[in-house]
Amino acid sequence: MLKSLTLLFSSLLFLTLSLNAQSIDLDKALQKADKEHKMLMVYLHRIGCSYCNSMDEFTLDDDKVIDFIEKHFIFRSVNITTDHEVTFEKKTTEGLEFAKEIGYNFYPTVLFFDNKGELVYASVGYKDEFDFLVILQYVDKGLYKMMTLSEYKKAIGFKKNSDGEIIDTRKNAR
Predict the structure, then answer these.
(1) Does the structural domain 22-141 have CATH classification 3.40.30.10?
(2) pLDDT tens across 25-44, in order?
């Protein structure tokens, strides 16, 4: 009886995970980005990551962030613990394997690809909605080609405080 219950539970768990897993075709997303003159933004995250949860709840759920992403990017979310198929450069792998192959195994990470599929910028770690909007603007304007993010922040009014931390000193920025 116990063996039957264990087998039934295992089967249900496998079925649930299989149904929740999705296939994410980044090649098709890149084609769409090219057609719409946008960049591809890929959000890598995982279950059980408190920083990923904060990024989901506070940053990616912010109205200004949502609007900016919808206008300027093709967005794809890859949960590396549940998404079992990611297609990129005509190769299909599991989400975790994709993240490792692309060279990012810290979460959350947001990857930005130009419409030719070249990785042009990566934002690693949790960013609040204000900092993330600055990153989105920096990438969208193509400024990563000309200056570092720190230089861009300084140019738009960020300054270092006495602890060496870069802070936003722009009026009404928040």
Answers:
(1) yes
(2) 999 999 999 999 999 999 99
